[in-house]
Amino acid sequence: MSLMTGNEYIESLRKQKKRIFLGGELIDNYVDHPIIRPSINACAMTYELGHLPEHRELLTVTSSLTGKTINRFTHLHQGVDDLIKKVKMQRLLGHKTGCCFQRCVGFDGFNAVDTVTYEIDQELGTEYNKRFRNYLEYVQDNDLIADGAMTDTKGNRRLAPSQQEDPDQFVHVVEKRPDGIVVRGAKIHQTGAINSHEILVMPTQTMRAEDADYAVCFAVPADTQGVLYIYGRQSCDTRRLEGGNVDVGNAMFGGQEAVIVFNDVFVPWERVFMCGEYQFSGALVERFAGYHRQSYGGCKSGVGDVLVGAAQAIAKIQGLEKASHIKEKIVEMIHLNETIYSCGIACSAEGRPTASGTYLIDLMLANICKLNVTRFPYEISRLAQDVAGGLVVTLPSEKDFGHPEAGPFLQKYLRSDTAYGTEERCRMQRLIENLTLGMGAVGYLTESLHGAGSPQAQKIMIGRLANLQYKEKMARDLAGIKKDRE
Ligand code: SF4
Ligand code: FE
Predict the structure, then answer these.
(1) Of the residues 9, 128, 291, 296, which is catalytic?
(2) What is the residue extent of each domain of the chain?
(3) Which of 299, 361, 450 to mutate to test the pocket of ligand 1 (most atoms within 8 A of CB)?
(4) CATH class assigned to 283-473
(5) Cα dist. 131→88, 113, 115 in Å?
(6) Which protein residue has the closest C-alpha to ligand 1 atom 6?
(7) Coil vs helix vs strand at 267
């Protein structure tokens, strides 16, 4: 099978029997659950667009492993063109969904694991890369989603993994057998975990020799025995249970985050891609984070475009689009948003091949991209709320609009320009609420801050990559200071 349609993807999820908890209950049919389904619809868009002629070039590509046409989300980047198309594809998907479409974490994991396993093999004579590429062929041939699972719970942050009072605070190997390993631990903040067919686990940080059992990378089918999921709450999520389609703001699409527990999970050796090679764990983290920091240049600018559009639309609905301060605010939103996108394109354009042949983005520019993303969506959201006005948080429920006594008053008093209906105004206000305060803000704001590493992680990388010594020397030379200093 190759290139599933959106519906085929949704049906493929039904075949997996995952153990999922949401709101204190074990969920039987998660595919049709009203809180979960919009996140599945967002993933389905990554399949659906590949079947539209106008988007095929971005969404599909020829596999470097098999020569077959595959979905780009399962591809190993073969050049700068692939890196740039990735960002463009993500921006497009942001337009179509207005939320996190979740498939990039696995995509970024594939590329990071490919480059690092190749280097482990070169240095240590192991065969991880061959195993990994066999696995990736299976993923490509079946058009699967893998959740790239990196973030451990980390317990007491003062202590290294092996020093923790509870040794399970980082995912680790608890048993090695002739046929595979047994792992225990948990991953948190897992974007799209429940909507994935596979879970690709990577270490969460640089490990030292004493933490070798924690330097483990592997993949398991998402419904493997011992794996369970606990669904993350999102602001306003229970509005999805109310039956309407206005107050949710974005009725069709949404993101998803979950806790994944690995309760003594068996992994056969052919699916183990690192096991004890602690000295490579830092490189794997750095590359995965680098690719995902690039990703934000695409997805966040795509969602940002939707918010710019919403601000423009609400300004028109409320009769303010010609006011100079409104125009100025919208231009400011565009400027910030295009700056995010520019960084995504720039780190891709400066990409280089790694030893495995898979291309890596420019890490400095990817970190700049992500650091901007930790700030600009907040400012864009502030401006959108400024343009929208207070109704974004004071609007009554859509049920009140339908009430025989209250409804007509709301229809009368909450109408603005009569060319637009009251409902149009409410829908646009709710979309802005969704993106800046509600379910959409999970992906657009807080994930922009902490996803792919919190701002401090980018600052550390920027400081490390900046070559300050060289910059200082340039300044000294031009200032006519001959003496060299450390
Ligand atoms: Fe993709 Fe963006 Fe969601 Fe990450 S936050 S999975 S890059 S859509
Ligand atoms: Fe993310």
Answers:
(1) 296
(2) 6-281, 283-473
(3) 299
(4) mainly alpha
(5) 30, 11, 13
(6) 102
(7) strand
Identify whether 291 is a catalytic site residue. no
C-alpha distances (whole Å) from 346 to each of 173, 285, 305, 368 are: 39, 21, 19, 10
- Selecting among 46, 48, 99, 100, the annotated active-site residue is 100
Measure 296 CA to ligand 1 centroid, in angstroms: 6
- Fold agreement (6-281, 283-473): no
Nearest listed ligand to the Cα of residue 192: 1
Question: What's the average pLDDT block by block, 10 residues per block, for the chain (486 residues)?
Answer: 92 97 97 98 98 98 98 98 98 98 98 98 98 98 98 97 97 98 98 98 97 98 98 96 97 98 98 98 98 98 98 97 98 98 98 98 98 98 98 98 98 93 97 97 97 96 95 95 78
Upper half-sphere CA count for residue 88 (Cβ side, 13 Å): 14
Ligand with minimal distance to 344 CA: 1
Distance of alpha carbon 103 from alpha carbon 98, whole angstroms:
14
Could you confirm whether 99 is annotated as catalytic? no
- For residue 220, give both structure tokens: 């398991």
Sign of the CA dihedral running 37, 452, 131, 217: negative
Ligand 1 atom closest to 191 (CA): 6
Residue with tokens 């992994």: 267
Predicted pLDDT at 2 = 80
Rounded to whole angstroms, the Cα distance separating 185 from 199 reads 14
Instruction: Provide the angle, in degrees to the nearest 10, between the axes of the packed helices 363-373 and 281-317.
Output: 40
Q: What CATH number belongs to 6-281?
A: 2.40.110.10
- Token pair for residue 244? 């309407």
Rounded distance from Cα 297 to ligand 2 centre (Å): 11
DSSP annotation string for 383-448: HHHHHH-THHHHPPPHHHHTSTTHHHHHHHHT--STTS-HHHHHHHHHHHHHHHTSHHHIIIIIHH
Burial (0-12, 13-18, 19+ Cβ within 10 Å), 276? middle
Q: Residues near ligand 1 with C-beta < 6 Å?
A: 100-102, 104-105, 191, 295-296, 299, 443, 447, 451
Is residue 299 flagged as an active site residue?
yes
How far is the C-alpha of 218 from the C-alpha of 458, rounded, in Å? 26
Q: What is the pLDDT of residue 132?
A: 98
Burial of 389 (0-12, 13-18, 19+ CB in 10 A): middle
CA dihedral 253, 145, 106, 452 (to 10 degrees): 20
Active-site residue identified among 48, 119, 198, 257:
257
How high is the pLDDT of residue 453? Answer: 93
